[in-house]
Amino acid sequence: MQKHYEFDEFVELRPTAKVDKSRHGWRAKCLQRLIRLDLPVPATVALPTETVRRIAAGQMPDVAAIIECFGDEMLISVRSSPENPEWGGPGTVLNVGLNNDMHARLVETHGAEAADALYLAFVQNYAVHVARLDPDMFCAPAGPGAVQAALAMYQEEMDSEFPQNPVQQLIEVLRSMARAWEGTTARLLRQAKGAPAEATLGLVLQQMALGIGPGLSGSGTIQFVDSVTGKPLINGRFRRQSQGRASADAELYLTRDPRGPSLEDLAPEVFEQLRGYGAICRQRLREEMQVEFTLEGGRVSVIDAVRVQRSARAGVRIAVALAEDGVIPREDALLRVEPRALTELLHFQVDPRAPRDVLARGIAASPGAATGKIVFSAAAAQASAARDEPCILVRRETSPEDVRGMHAAHAVLTERGGMTSHAAVIARGLGLPCIVGCLEISISGREKRLVGPRGRVFYEGDVITVDGSNGDVLVGTAEMLSPALDDGFQTLLRWADNVRDIGIRANADTPEDARTARNFAADGIGLCRTEHMFFDEDRLTVMREMIFADASQDRRLVLERLLPMQRADFIALFDIMAGMPVCIRLFDPPLHEFLPHDRDGMRDLADALDRPLSEVTRRIEAMSEFNPMLGMRGVRLGVTIPEIYDMQARAIFEAAVEASTRGAQVVPEIMIPLVSASREVELVKSRIDAVAAAVRSETKAEFTYRLGAMMETPRAALRAGEIAEHAEFMSFGTNDLTQMTYGLSRDDAGRFMSTYVNQGVYAEDPFHILDVEGVGELLLIGAGRGRATRRDITISVCGEHGGNPESIAFCRAAGFDYVSCSPFRVPVARLAAAHFALLAPKSHG
Amino acid sequence: MQKHYEFDEFVELRPTAKVDKSRHGWRAKCLQRLIRLDLPVPATVALPTETVRRIAAGQMPDVAAIIECFGDEMLISVRSSPENPEWGGPGTVLNVGLNNDMHARLVETHGAEAADALYLAFVQNYAVHVARLDPDMFCAPAGPGAVQAALAMYQEEMDSEFPQNPVQQLIEVLRSMARAWEGTTARLLRQAKGAPAEATLGLVLQQMALGIGPGLSGSGTIQFVDSVTGKPLINGRFRRQSQGRASADAELYLTRDPRGPSLEDLAPEVFEQLRGYGAICRQRLREEMQVEFTLEGGRVSVIDAVRVQRSARAGVRIAVALAEDGVIPREDALLRVEPRALTELLHFQVDPRAPRDVLARGIAASPGAATGKIVFSAAAAQASAARDEPCILVRRETSPEDVRGMHAAHAVLTERGGMTSHAAVIARGLGLPCIVGCLEISISGREKRLVGPRGRVFYEGDVITVDGSNGDVLVGTAEMLSPALDDGFQTLLRWADNVRDIGIRANADTPEDARTARNFAADGIGLCRTEHMFFDEDRLTVMREMIFADASQDRRLVLERLLPMQRADFIALFDIMAGMPVCIRLFDPPLHEFLPHDRDGMRDLADALDRPLSEVTRRIEAMSEFNPMLGMRGVRLGVTIPEIYDMQARAIFEAAVEASTRGAQVVPEIMIPLVSASREVELVKSRIDAVAAAVRSETKAEFTYRLGAMMETPRAALRAGEIAEHAEFMSFGTNDLTQMTYGLSRDDAGRFMSTYVNQGVYAEDPFHILDVEGVGELLLIGAGRGRATRRDITISVCGEHGGNPESIAFCRAAGFDYVSCSPFRVPVARLAAAHFALLAPKSHG
């Protein structure tokens, strides 16, 4: 008699059945959809998670009633159906119901060989996975007498005959699978993949389509796009006389192929039928699906269909194609692409289709791929960088002493460590490909030797490739895919721009950066640092002369020689950006960065300046600082040595006038760095206004400009109300602001950041992910007070956080006008911004 | 006919007259009080400020009516009476009304010599100050014919006779004085002394008491306390046949004196009368007054009485004595002493009574006095300090390059600069005596020579004394007054303790500091920095061994050797503080501060550790930091190398157990430095709790302790709500908090701080005066959030700002429990706290 639960113990999948993913799992849901689409799915029953949970607890459902769904000759598969396919689950058991009688019938219908193969496979599988017997005893290959031997072995081990009752078989299979889900290892594995602690399992029971027997029989999968490129391409595999993994026969090409016979040739109508199913899935399930099918004497059964596995670039192309074909709205296409996945398109990747000689596998700790010569020490990495030779830093594990070497390397590989080890954290921060925890290799730094599996040995200078996207260490060079900025990519981002409601600018210091920013369709330049412009050798000499000049008039004269060069720098940027906003940050670094620090350099400088070495040495020493980050830099230089900003302002204005004659009117934005008091802005503004007036009068050209403050100190955020009196825009430099809010130098934090992240002191490296709780609050305070003073003030973030989706969500929620990030992060930022606009639309007005 | 103003044009001073300081000035008010006290004050008329303002504008009052108050033989003085005596005003004019007729009468009554002297003085004074004639023409000494010559000269220059009409004389005198007040120079001078732009002048007209003539006549002043010590002592001066400044005769001692005749001898009844007036003034005016008097034939007139000038130490003693005598309440005594004035008592001062050879005068830019050898360069100052020889750094002006030299010097003297020049700002920050803008000297650093007025020349090594309290540069050594912590001082501070409502603790690292803190009656130690304890030579070696230890176990073993020394340190502190709270900050500085940085030191270290020099060098280099202030220090060390805090906690607990056996139960307070996330506190707390449990079990002693966070990062303030979950107290380290809030390293800020203060970018050096707007807001945020989590959390400030009255007012208003400052600032802090409690009492409950 059937027990009376308050729920259905099982459900037979029909178009009208009530099936839902959270109760019956993804596979049940998917199969029901296929049934609704009228695909030839064999009879299928879904057990909801509650039933499976009770089975694990020893409470069996009415198995006899379930079996009735499959008619007299029950032969079924049992498959896992958790809510999310990523969570895994116990392996499929095929051919449940197979016993001596059925075997005898199969011998008649399909021949002894096929029948034996099926029965042997079932007995072995059952013995190992259901009865939990020693796998070594149940691994004999198919052959005469193998079935009888397996049955005998089973009986000996279990002290009972191999179960002949299909009901008993099914009960044991269900119990075994339900309990496997509860095992500790299984739980840890799925939790590592993001499953919640209380995740439950559904099961799917399906009538077997045998795939063996007379006529064209077999099993296979087919998909209609390329998993790597996303381009239309029919591929998959088909094996005659097989049941999926339990392959028994040679492979058949799916499409016409010169190398051998193909399904398309042998059974064109079946091929067309499959193609039709693919088209139906794509249209009705609104997704590119991989269809799993079985042929029995030319009759197609669809066993399953799963979302096509895809690379990031394929994901973009598929989503765009679906939208362009009207299958899904553009908004859906946008939401189907994870913004961070675009990063992969911007990095070099090892071509997944190319042959690869995998030396070892480790944890993919920082994405991208790089090839280079092995070095075993930070010093060797620096030497290699000095020779311009790409190198891979290989260490047992890294420590703070290696950070400078990591800067010099193209990738990092460590024997030990996990996702939050020192090497992993630092490499992600530096954007370096990195593999950690590569336990298959053994490194001896002293002997400069790397030993891989199977005794393969490598020495310093040998070439390897690190694929930080999937954790593979490859021998030698590898074929690389260049960054993929194809049509699909461009189209998706154009759509993103149509929906996003926050600006995305790029941090760009050079014409190259600016061109990249334009290519990636940034809304302008949000941060152009000008100091690099003084490091060219010819300019450096002039800078040093300026630093050593004693009087304002002397400094002014020296700086006049830099003026035309700076003007040319700015003209180039304005021309490239063609009227888009360009925000130029005035000179920021401490002057001592421009001075030599070794004896030889000082001697050269003394010669160049024609001053005594003792004076040069003394002045350089006097300019050294205990904490340069907190020293004489930024607007502090602007206030105490105003001649530098005067020159820069003039260069900007003259460049704007010239660029405007060729194209759109340029309205330069001038940003004052390291503000901590409103009076700093006021003082600089009055001088810059005077320069603007002078340039207007000299050039007889009319132009305007916008002046703003870079908000990098906590005090600037607190005093934003006053600062806004003099500033038309405020841009938060979250790098420095993070350093000061935490009292933490980014350059020095590497010594303990991994310990801190590991111990949960910081949830994340705050230089990597914006610290919303601390730094974020200062942003909100600053923005609020700035707006209270000047309602239409432009507010933005221009630190490296700017490109992180988390930061964009934060800034957008706070009503910031734009974020500015490195040019290569602009695409991610554009897409992330579109996501937030779609997921949390702002009310209008 | 008298004009009808809406106000009284003048008021004759009588006991019932309506006189008030804001309308008639301080002098009128004071004289009226003396009249009320029935002192023999000659007839006096006060002109209110409105009358004087109109006079300056050309609108004369009814002078004839005024003159009527003085009877027929008008001979009067006219004196300034601004609201505040500090504001100055035009000089007194005596003997208005003197003309040929009066002169003739005086010849009869007082003799020709006296009459001539008076008339000549008046004519000269009138000519120069009223008629504005050339002083050189009117400076002839008294003598036969001098009066006639002066009158003739006047007539020649003015083309009219010297005015004979007393009304006309008075009109001219009044007009001249009223206009002098409006002069630009006069205005600037009084504004420099704090007068508002709209400050006005009253005038006082008083019948002359001649002070010359037959019998005992003359003028003088008398006071009854010593201006330097504040002790009871009759002193002053008396000149026979004189009218105050216009001295004409020899001086007479006031009190009996072996050196000559005295007033006390010659006219004991007059002397007693004056003593009585002093007593009346003290009792009724509640102040020690200096009485100005005139004798005419033995008849006493009291011309004026002013508050006795006094040194800071005299001010304390006078206030305390008045309160002890019941003349004023103790609260008034407290309020009469400016807290910062106590600083003077704590500094060495040049004894004002000792002879002084003043080389030159400059601007007193930073108080205190010091004697030392002249050095002309920062390098020489450092060399001198290395030899333990006190030196005075003498520069034309200082620049950032001199800062290290200033650290080494005992005082600073510059030829140029003002109160906000580089030297002044830095010296105040360092607590160094400093004189700037000493234009009378000329310095040649190249020739190592200082040339003073009158060609006096000094060379490097010559000894001078800098009196930064009054701006005097003295030749050679000077007699110094040691800090004055006498009975009056102690009494006043005891009274202060009775009224103040905020705790004052001391920052004390050593037993010496702790003893000073006890002497100054601090409420405990608010900050005991422990790192100095590791710098003794024997401990340093152990520290270095610990730093180079590779494993936790090794570090632990090495630190065990430091444990007994640390324990002894803490026992000493607990014993001295005898049960008062002692807040110990755990180890804070970066470890590289303990390592040698020169080649020799590294070689020694390599020897000591028995490791290769290359390894020592490499590890020291790897530990160097870009920004040590923002690096691996404070709790970051505590989390990554927990063995140090474990050892310190054990030392603290074992010391507390031992000290408690001898006296009051010790409840140590343990403070975690540089917190930026609550988890840091949580992690350290769990380890320290474990150490406490271990010590309890080993010693079988019960003890408790309090754990708190030092709030030095902006983020700590923002996250105070979470931090308070693990912290029983929070103490704001405003030094570091200021550095991080401004993004400004204190060590490096000297390069531009004076420019910044001069240009008004910062109103004050924020390391000197707490930045209420920025840093202060973070304090309020932190305190508010901390209390929201833990209502009874103890909140304090322990940065160097703690002792500033401004900071105390701020912390008290914010409801902080205590401030902690350097031991020598404790007295100022105690008094300032009392002031705020009296001036802005908190409502109870």
Mean of the pLDDT scores of chain A? 91
What's the overall geometry of chain A? elongated
**How many strands appear in the DSSP assignment of chain A?**
31
Low-confidence spans of chain A: 1-5
CA radius of gyration of chain A is 34 Å
Number of DSSP helical runs of chain A: 33
Class from helix and strand fractions of chain A: alpha/beta
Strand order of the largest sheet of chain A: 12-22-21-14-15-16-17-13
Largest sheet of chain A: 8 strands, mixed
Helix content of chain A: 40-55%
Beta percentage of chain A is 15-25%
Taking the alpha carbons of the first and last residues of chain A, their distance comes to 65 Å
Largest interface: A-B, 53 and 53 residues
Assembly form of the protein: homodimer
